[in-house]
Each structure stands twice: as structure tokens, then as C-alpha cells.
């Protein structure tokens, strides 16, 4: 792992890192409470299509977890997102379009992203102010497309927030296969007026999850309009399982 | 209103009352913080079929609202439930059976219960330790069958917890008519394995609610297995709208 930037603002330390995995460079951010070198739980945040590890809601969520729950948070860029792009300043629309095509055309995309996350996890859990876990996962939409298979594969993850996704799309078969292998407590978020993924397909994915402890919260609004209420509910849910 | 019993335990005062409305006697319980004679918000709790104003979860919910939120709580017996019966010790099964028949056979049942609640509300809001409101409503299953029309009619009610019910049953038409008139914030609770009312009909009722601010929480388990998590979430939700 290569550490690139290290800055502290308002009690939260933010470190930029790049983990090398073969020829792949995996760029990420780590947020921790400043000046507290003891081990703590870690929450992995998977952003949505068109966004990045630096987008507003990811940073806000991370800082809130650090401030209120004193846990560590890490986010990495998704495939062809953020610092993985030659043009990291590309528009949300262009990035979304290219991701949509990659989702349809690259059968390795999910496995690569799962391996990226696991390589990052292996590095971060050696840090004095992170430690071995427990680990939580938080990811909606593309964060579920690529994150649900991670949660299914990674036994260190003990709680997950998933949603804004259904049993649909190019990797429907992969989600269908992996969902029953998810066994940790899950909070699944859906939007009643989601213009991308139907409530019916979302319920199919929710029902397919293997977890004995799961719940679905349905809110009004479109795909991108998850209300603050659910950010708070998900923070509470994750913290309850990570810190008791 | 006639006050019958008055006892205080662990900081919570519990008063048994009977409100006369024409020939009808409406028995209820009022819980308030002991020794705090100032006005406070009031939460009305409508119990489920087969239960009563005294059943375990109603009393537990009421005492928790008083303890943690310092609001007042009132519950009244539903039609042919509790002290409205000649045999108040009748089994849950017999009471449930008789309610089911009344639901099918008595077209006045909903209007009578709405009028009972409003008569009780008129009385309780004159008390020094309750006052004019704001008012919340909390009722699942029969508490929604009979409570949704109350919430639709009563502008003093500013927040409601409803659920375990769908657009179905003998009073389906009444629910269909009244749901669009509900305009306050609503938390709607559903159980994925509800053996009485389907998720599809529950979503129909949720969608029919007129409220611009509503959300549905779906949990695993059967009709009667609403988890503690949702009692806590509903308490938080109601308190947020009643006390800010």
C-alpha cells in the first residue's frame, strides 16, 4: 500500500492510499478519529455508478461514522470511476454510461472488484488504528451490484447495508447465486419511485438474501433521493452490530 | 368521563376511565409522567384484534413513551374487546373470532370506533397534564382497520404509525376511501411472512395513503412477530414529530 495524502480536519483524519494488486492500482480513502491509535471497527463504503470515493454523500457518511461512532471508514473507487480514470474529472453522466456498458460487457468486473476490496481490507486491518475488525459494508445501487458478492464472500463482514438494486441487469445471475450466501444482518433500502430498478425486483433480491436477520425500508422518492432519515437509520444499524 | 382507578408505579401514573357516549361506555387507560402537571403531547394506541388496552405490548409501549419521551399515552378497548365485553376474561381466540364476524357484519363498526376515539380525545385534552396536543396515533392490524379512518378524520393527529394491514377485508372500500385523506407523516409496518394480510395488499394500502411523508418498514416474521427494533423505530418516529 502506498500512502499519498494525510490530512486532518475537525477531528477526522483522512488518508489517500493506493493498493497495488498485480497490475491494478486500487485508489481509496481512509477516515479515522484523529489521535486515537487503538483498534476499532471498520466500515467499507461502496459508492454508486457515476460517483467516486470522494463524492459528497460518501464523505459525509464517513465523517459521521467517525464523529458519532468512532469507527474507521474506507471507500475505494469503483471500476472506471474516480482516480481509476485517465480523466478523473469526467462527468457523472459519462462515467455512468461507461459503467453501464462495462456491466453488460465485462464478465470479470464483479470478481475484480471483490478482489480489490479484499486486498484493501488485508492492508487496512494491519493498521494500529484499525485492526482486525469487525467489518461492516455499506453500498447502494452499484455499491450493491459489486458489494453484495463481497459481503457473500467475506466472512469478516458482519453487517451490511444494501439496496437501490433488484434481481435484474447483466449480472442478475451472479446476484441470484450470491444472495443466498449473504448471512450477516442486512438493512435493505428501496425507493418507491425508483426509475432504474422496480420494487418487485428489489423484493426479489431482498427475499433471496440468506440472512435470517434482515429488514427492508421503503421510502418515497426516486433512485437518487434516499432521505437523511435512512442515512441515520443505517448508521444506527451498522453501529449496533459493530460496537454493540 | 368517570375516573375509576388511579395508581402510580415507577414514575408512571395510570388512570382507568370510562367515557360515556350516548348509550356506549368507552373504557380506556391513560398513562402520564407522575407529578408533572404541565401539558404534553398525547399518543393514542389502538390495540389489535383479540387484545385489549391492557395487553402486554400496549402497556409496555405506553410506559416506554412516558419514560423516555415524557408524553401522555391513552388506549381504549376496541369493539367487543376488554372491558366492553360481558366476559372480559374471554380468550384471545374467541375475541378474535367475534371481532372477525363483527368486521364482516356490522357496517357501523368503524364509524362508532372513530366517534369513541374522538369523544375520548375531547375529554383527555381538557386535562391539565395532557392539554390540546399535538396528538399521535399508533395502531397495527385492527388498530389500523379502525385507526386509519380516525387519522383521516381527525386533524388534531399529526403523526401516525400504521400497518399489519392491507387493502383487503370487509372494510376494504372504507380504507380505500379514507387512505387518501390521511395527510400526516406515516410509518407503515409490514411483516414479510404475514399469514393474514399479503405484502401486495399492504403495499396497495401504503401507496393509497395521501401523506407526502411516508415510509414502509418490512421485517421478517409472521403477523404477530413485529420485532423490538420496530417498536423502537416507531417510538423515535412519533417522538420526532410530537416533540421535535
Describe the structure.
Helix content of chain A is 36%, strand content 25%. Chain A is built from 8 helices and 9 strands. A 9-stranded mixed beta sheet of chain A has the order 1-2-3-5-4-6-7-8-9, sandwiched between helices. In chain A, helix 1 packs across helix 8 (228-243). The first copy, chain A, starts with a strand and ends with a helix. The A-B interface holds A 192, 199, 203, 206-207, 212-220, 229, 233 and B 192, 199, 203, 206-207, 212-220, 229, 233. Strand 9 (214-219) of chain A pairs antiparallel with strand 9 (214-219) of chain B, so a sheet runs across the interface.
Could you write a compact summary of the structure shown?
With 244 residues, chain A is an alpha/beta fold.
What string, H for helix and E for strand, traces the elements of chain A in order?
Answer: EEEEHEHHEHHEHEHEH
The count of helical stretches of chain A stands at 8
Number of strands of chain A: 9
The major sheet of chain A is characterized as: 9 strands, mixed
Oligomeric state as shown = homodimer
| Rounded mean pLDDT score of chain A | 97
| Chain pair forming the biggest interface | A-B, 16 and 16 residues
Largest sheet, spatial ordering of strands of chain A: 1-2-3-5-4-6-7-8-9
